[in-house]
Amino acid sequence: MRSKRISGLYAVTPETSDTDWLVARVRAVLEGGARLVQYRSKSTDLRRREQQAGRLLDLCREQQAFLIINDDMVLARRLGADGVHLGRDDMSVADARAALGDVALIGVSCYASLARARQAQGEGADYVAFGSFFPSAVKPDAVHAPIELLRSARRLIELPLVAIGGITPENARDLIEAGADSLAVISALFQASDTRLAARAFAGLFQMQDESLRIDSDR
To answer: How big is the CA angle at 185 (ends 129 and 197), to the nearest 5 degrees?
Structure first.
């Protein structure tokens, strides 16, 4: 049941010291159709990170969305966030589950590795993320993941699949058609001139996919 909550537009926050700007943009993203937000910050200012994540958690509660904390299980537990996203050098899924409890959402970055995804599934993760599918300004040196990887993962992995890396409304449809349940987006949302409109463009792609599936099932 936890895994069913991972679908559609998954907004990942950019690095910024301007908390008011961040909260305003995340509000616009949620109003545009995102139901998942990942707070991602590599700042060493722990007080600011806790303040930002706390305000985003309040906003997500207000908007009936989920807040997931990138990397920082301690912060996720202290705030009572909805879950944590783990990278290659973070703690194990089992340790995160023991710390956050059974209802927490735990995601794992799998880059371009099906083996890592299968391991995460076996350890009890709620979703796996693959990427970078396209060149990304946020992580220009990220490992490239081919779109065919999603098709292979769809056959082998029962968890929701999250795609990340350089995703725009123009290239997103290929990822959804290949099997992505959710799209994790940073720049195309938070660097857009109209954040709410950008979120609606992504959310609309999933609505189109749902309508297409309903039509196919009725035939």
So the answer is: 145
